[in-house]
Amino acid sequence: MAKRLSVIVSQAQGKNPAKRKLEEDIVAGLLFESGIDVTIVPNLYDIQADSTSLVALQGVGGNAVLCSWLFERAARWVLDRHGIHGQHGTVLLQAEDDEADEDEADDSDEPADDKDRVIDSRDLPNRKIYCLDLKASNSADEFIAEVKRIYSENQVQVVGLTDVLNAAPLPKVASQQAGDQNENGSAAGQAVVNRIEEKSGRRWYPVIDYSRCTNCMECIDFCLFGVYGVDRIDTILVEQPDNCRKGCPACSRVCPENAIMFPQHKTPAIAGSMDAAASLKIDLSQLFGAPAEGKSAEELAAIERDEQLVMAGRNAVGAKSSAGRSEISTSSKPDELDDLVDELNDLDI
């Protein structure tokens, strides 16, 4: 029995008709492809912890393809934040920003050094997740072709394993597949489409790339808004994402491993571009676009943090403060300025 492939389409923020048409053309092109199930959700980055979309995503089993408007690296770690884990699946359709590093990546965005990374302590499930950047092409046919290639690649793996074991697929798996087809009323092999319709406001919070993170705690020391915390084994995490100040990427500038991303930032280096991730030896003040007067990335980050503190009605602390663990914002609710920015962003002009 052929192994089904789940395709997740994460819709763009705003109401850009060209982006929406590309999304719908991809879904339409997959409708009659055998062995493919499609789930359409609002923008992945904006999904809340108690949303129907997240329940649907966490219910996706096996290998999966995510189509989103985020850089591939950012998309992978947003999924990871939502509890959707898996091995890195290599995609051949690349955005221009990432093409230069395709050969250097060696099927992984993990840095090649001997530092201990958080991901080294993880036991990832035996599944692959492929992240397609919808900025890579204006042609739905190219994305459909890449999904079909990934589907075929996974079928070859399944057949090879079956041949080695010299055994038929497990009856339990076959029974589940047959049950799914009967329940959804679709013809054998025909795609099943699940569209999740729910409102989701724009969000702004950091996303951690654990293949780069060394758990150095620089971010939690620097941030004064209570965004970061640690889990039961003292691993850094984004504990209170909605405490983050909209538009502020300061903590990404002080991370020594470039492990912190803000997927909706206009600067590719901060938004998760693979090109930026592979360029750690570049002077960070140039990489992140520091002002012409030559301020370092750390100085620029301190300025951005002070601006947010003042806007929140608190005192600026300057570049020397490291009180991030103890000084926490008392307000995480969006203000009127946040609402105005959201309305302008929805126009997508």
Overview of this structure, please?
By secondary structure, the chain is α/β, with parallel strands linked by helices. It folds into two domains: 191 residues; 90 residues, no CATH class. It is 37% helix and 11% strand. It contains 14 helices and ten strands. The strands form three sheets. A six-stranded parallel β-sheet has the order 4-5-3-1-2-6, sandwiched between helices. It has a two-stranded antiparallel ribbon with strand order 7-10. A hairpin with a 5-residue loop joins strand 8 and strand 9.
Salient structural properties:
14 helices; 349 residues; 2 domains; six-stranded parallel sheet; alpha/beta; two-stranded antiparallel ribbon; globular
